[in-house]
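Protocol check, entry for the methods section draft. Step 1: assemble the input record (protein sequence plus ligand SMILES). Step 2: submit for complex structure prediction. Step 3: store the structure tokens unaltered in the notebook. Ligand used here: coenzyme A. Step 1 record:
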Amino acid sequence: MSAEAIFCRPLRETDFPGVMTVQAERYDGRMLEPEATLVARWIASPDTAWVALDESGICAYLFGYRSILGRITPLRGLFEPAPQANTFYLHDLAVSRRAHGIGIGTRLVRLGWELARREGVPHSSLVSLESARTFWHRLGYRIHALTDPEQHDRLRGYEENDAQAFHMALDLDA
Ligand SMILES: CC(C)(COP(=O)(O)OP(=O)(O)OC[C@H]1O[C@@H](n2cnc3c(N)ncnc32)[C@H](O)[C@@H]1OP(=O)(O)O)[C@@H](O)C(=O)NCCC(=O)NCCS
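Step 3, stored output:
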């Protein structure tokens, strides 16, 4: 699959079956989040979700929202967009195996950054699973220490066995 044959656009209501298929393909059981949760997040922040499509349909998605640096969405928790946001929080990015490694994940992330920069939001942040840490590091994200114990507990909720999760952040105006 060539990257030129794939296009990105804002997520629509009819995209959820395709999104759920990509999620099921890329995450193991414990990390799966129900469709109702994804729909509720999109309703809470409808202009911060995008999909990528190839000739077979949806091959990638990104859900983000405007938040406060240091806050973490609990696994299976809802988005609580902040009116005075200082970070564009990337909650979930997944790319189907048929389209991975050709820049689609990066392209979706850049859509989020563009929106945040237009609004003067200075940071982007996320929780990275161990398996994706190098990907985020290459995009410029660095470990960002959490001071609030409640947020720390939320972060721990993403960990499994020996696999750590990391809170990472990036300065968008740097
Ligand atoms: C992580 C993920 C979103 C990356 O998407 P992608 O479209 O394959 O990434 P890109 O093609 O934009 O990759 C950009 C660069 O990072 C590299 N890269 C991609 N995934 C990587 C990973 N997991 N670890 C290290 N490097 C990775 C690519 O090789 C590429 O390198 P290059 O610029 O030298 O060619 C995708 O592999 C995925 O869906 N993984 C499963 C779900 C997941 O873990 N999501 C993140 C949750 S925190």
